[in-house]
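Late entry, written up from scratch paper. The run itself happened at the end of the previous shift, but nothing got recorded in the book at the time, so transcribing now.
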Amino acid sequence: MKYNWTEMTEDQKMAAVKEEMSLVTHNGTTKEDFVEIMRFLSGQVALRDKALKLSVERMHELIADDCDEVVCPNVYGECTADCPNCGEYNSDDYQTAIGCWINVYLDKATGA
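Output as recorded:
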């Protein structure tokens, strides 16, 4: 194997994936490395899927509570600082607010 996947951080694994994707040929890449790349990427997809599902569930709860505006997660104590996406507590942009919730749950899923 070209990489020691058990010793690598998440950032190092992502860098290895990007490096492999940029190669013209993969003659030096072992089958084991390809399998580890697939495991890593499938894990990343699973984390993002979980975060998306949790954020959509939370948004449905807010809608069910007859919330009449889109609210940043910060209002509910879901994060400790102003939202890094919208920089506001309230937003009339549903896409921005949903993006905020996705990031909150992505951080929770990854332990960030």
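The first strand starts at residue 70 and ends at 71.
(Scratch paper discarded after transcription.)
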